[in-house]
């Protein structure tokens, strides 16, 4: 197996084409006589690509033919043809025993070592280290990593075989592969229906939208494309074997249009060649060119390179695109043929529809909306669900350090496709990153490599506690109840009002149970990864970016960006002695995690809190579930428990400062978005409110805003209610004003929260307290409180408001030219806001009214404007984090980052604090707003932008002395 993989990988890259030629793929499935030939006839296509191999940070090792090898599995698995190719490649590559694998891998390693020895002859040998470990250990882990990355394909191949066996046992398709049996059953009736539809079109019977097109392709080809594309959608494009009608219609219609264009192109070339041979009028060069293109297209079709075929056809084709009307209506009278699915030899045939068209309802803020779906027969669905289970392979943590990032799709995983940015289909953003010069992106690569090379491990003691709680039904430490809420019994009454109340209760219980189910699934996924990785010495999380430049681990479940459960289970794989300062930081960490206002005390106050609860800490560490359970009162209970265990070990040691600690200690920004605005605007008042200025204890911006709101309300309450209705509202609210009432509004102010958003936030807080019973009065009080809170915010953060307004005005001006807002982050990352209008179009068919929507070329002006300020600030906080990560690694620190929360070992917190403050000052000493305006003016020279907002006189150097800037 591995020799086979190595042979393929040396040619680079293995790619499973999802955009394969529809009719060819479908006919492959129909022709295959048995399972083995289906697999054999779909071998992987192999192409060269980028590097894989042994590496150290900042240095690529040039050893062996394996160094130039990875597999890049295309992750777009929407079409069934590509799925079969994936299964085939997996089955071929993985068809070997464990003994054979071990022998093959050892042979490869021997060749690597032999090659290295030859290359290094005459040079004094040094101990070889890769990723901080010996070469032998690295090789062993790397073999396991390769196997883990390909394991999902192996599982998919096995499940595919099991599926076929199951279908045969049900006598659904005796002795035939699953898909072949279905296609053979559907092909003839579908082809005949399309032919009949063609006849009706010729008679002009109300099918005007697609009548000119349905005769442009033979009915048999159209039938195969329809089956192929619809099956591909139903396998991956919906839940429970279903897909939306609009999605299926566009998908199939577009595929048929492509096929028609190719078909017409080949026919046109053939006619021209025949005409030239007949007339013999000296057009030999043109004839040769036509023949060359025709042959090239046929060769590309055989190789299933559909994109290249379409490119050639578009260059030679002047036919107007069909449009969505035609694409959609091609489907509506052809795809819903209802052929037999279940053929039982022992009984008369049970003829029933393979697909049915139904309407579903969804609740929206504006009421109930209905939409059409295509659903599979349960027998088909059973097969589809089992086949599609491994279509999307989740990234797992890596056993070896990730490949260094060197390009848009070069880095991270050894075999799985890895992209440096999550563009979610935004073409302009993807192209902007790809076009950026490599030296410009070098700091981004370096930061992501730093984050990815941080080594983690599972805290087994915490995992054991979590497993015990989960086995006993959950319900502790924010773990969801594993049992559903029982449905209320139906009342024995004819009273309609009582029945209505009962139905509402049932609906509420079902909603609660649905939410519990989702939470249980989430916990199970996280625990499954933790159990899988718990016996590993360590593992790594490759990182990539969102479009704003914020870094995220590529593994989605158990990572340090996750919940308290994830963070409690994870710890650094490398331990370091606490030292004197580390012991203090561990005590501070415990107080921060316990919360409840303790985290707002000075460092001395937090240390005192921890020292006053030493008995509780020991009890929690020794008997987490049998003792007093003090740790369960913490805001972050599992992280608190992990800290209790580490701290109790240190305090019981004769030399506490020598205790090895694996705990990541967090340093969090204080309302970090406002910190960035205060630095941008050199706003002294705002800087004091968010800890950019030194103080005896941390400033609490939420309490500060609440105090201002209270002062305003006290002044208003002293007025005459006969003149001002807000007087009574102020009197009602005076006792309700606290940091919790205003916290959400202050937090979201950096995202441009509107008055309506602030009103709704405050209304929810007031409703939770049941302070005001009358709904009308509650609404009026929320309106008044929202206005007062926004006024207080404007007073405290005047510079932030003016910068937000300036950013929004610039975005509005740019969008008048129908252009998205673009900028480059301080670290050189190009950013393009992806917001574009959706085009909506209604089409009436015999089945339903279809509403099509698709992204257009027009930008969403309002969204471009409102999203720009928060997106810009996020790009700045991402830059600060990456600058800090690079500097920490250069200083020899372990580092992990969660946006505005920076982590390192307890003994290194003081060093990290110094670095992150220096990098913040360095970031804002640059003319960020001036550079932004200059970029706008260069990209849109015909537009006039407003002048930069006035800025204050805050001295950035004060940040260097601010104890609680991050704390």
UniProtKB/TrEMBL annotation:
Report the coiled-coil segments: 88-118
Q: SUPFAM superfamilies under this entry?
A: DNA/RNA polymerases
**Catalysis: reaction(s):** RNA(n) + a ribonucleoside 5'-triphosphate = RNA(n+1) + diphosphate
InterPro entries to which the protein is assigned, alphabetical:
DNA-dir_RNA_pol_helix_hairp_sf, DNA-dir_Rpol_C_phage-type, DNA-dir_Rpol_phage-type, DNA/RNA_pol_sf, RNA_POL_N_sf, RPOL_N
A Gene Ontology CC term for this entry? mitochondrial DNA-directed RNA polymerase complex
GO terms under biological process: mitochondrial transcription
Asked whether the keyword Zinc-finger is assigned, the reply is no
Q: What EC number(s) does this enzyme carry?
A: 2.7.7.6
GO terms (molecular function) for this protein are:
DNA binding; DNA-directed RNA polymerase activity
- Parts of the chain that traverse the membrane: none
Keyword list (alphabetical) reads: Coiled coil, DNA-directed RNA polymerase, Nucleotidyltransferase, Transcription, Transferase, Transit peptide
Domain DNA-directed RNA polymerase N-terminal: from-to ranges: 143-453
Q: Does the keyword Coiled coil apply?
A: yes
Q: Which family does it belong to?
A: Belongs to the phage and mitochondrial RNA polymerase family.
Which PANTHER family does the record associate with it? DNA-DIRECTED RNA POLYMERASE 1B, MITOCHONDRIAL, DNA-DIRECTED RNA POLYMERASE, MITOCHONDRIAL
Role this protein plays: DNA-dependent RNA polymerase catalyzes the transcription of DNA into RNA using the four ribonucleoside triphosphates as substrates.
This protein's name: DNA-directed RNA polymerase
Q: Which organism is it from?
A: Phtheirospermum japonicum
